[in-house]
Amino acid sequence: MTEPDTDSPRAESAAHSLPPHAQIIQMAGGLVIARAIYAVAELGIADHLMDGPRSADELAQATGTHAPSLYRLLRSAAGFGLFTEDAEHRFSLTPVGAVLQSEAPGYARSTVRSLTGPIAWNAYGNFLHSVKTGESGVEKAYGQSLFDYLGTDPEQATMFNQTMIGFHGAEPPAVAAAYDFSGVGKLVDVGGGTGNLLTSILLANPELRGVLYDLPHVASEARRQIDAKGLSGRCEVIEGSFFESVPSGGDAYMLSHIIHDWDEARCLKILDNCLRAMRGGGRLLLVEQVIPEGNDFHPGKFLDLMMLAFTPGGRERTVEEYAALFAKAGFNLKRVVPTESAVSVVEAEPV
Fold first, then answer.
1. Where in the sequence numbering do the catalytic residues fall?
2. What digits encode the pLDDT tens for the residues 10-58?
3. Which one, 143, 174, 199, 292, has the greatest CB density within 10 A?
């Protein structure tokens, strides 16, 4: 099965000119491509090619793999644009393949390993179960939610945090540029992860102060990231669970990709804790992908399927669905601010 270069308009046109059954089969073949790229990332092939071209035999020795099988993987990955193969059957990195190096900006390697690795494999292996029952594939496979599981596995938790940066990497500067934070003195980032979004906003707004609130195993990494960006004097890190409480004293409360992770009952609990912390005033800012009307592809629809597989009742929402959720939680939807990325800032205020 061949895979066209979908970056090319001519290739895209050729793909749509295929008969319908061939288009469907080609889509399903994406599974093979995803797992092949996962194998490349997991084996650290890009790291082993940092110093120049190497043969499959040399790479097999370095990675503990079967040389003929590894050659077949590398040859196919060259067709995906990750490598080039010379006349002596040595492989070199392309710019696309180079982003899979461990230290490359953007955390592509961690993102690939997380999105196509064992947890994801088990989650998607139970995807039909999710569609039939509404239970996440992770819960079916591991007997607990993704977030509970990550709390028991520090290595996977670190990789997940890096994946969030890699997957949502274009969003922080886009949010900082699109939303006017000038009327906010203190911004509380509820479930702020390692601080990638909050620090981007603080750097763009020198008068703003921040509070990052997250679980202890996340907060420790957030402190390191905030300190590395020279923002520890303007940004406090507080440990805790948004299911129990939210720090008070903020002018605005931001939740980035938090509400989409949970079922409605738990969303309402989180929002109620935010409302209590706001004490009747301030702004609520959700950074989420808002699903538009119509049949066209939107990344929020793709992310919505991931929520089905990975989260306990999580989902993406339309504007109308956010308005209905806010009404139940004691908020009014004020406006939706689009950004240059896939996310919007959904602003609400207490009733």
1. 260
2. 555 555 688 999 999 888 999 999 999 999 999 999 999 999 999 999 9
3. 199
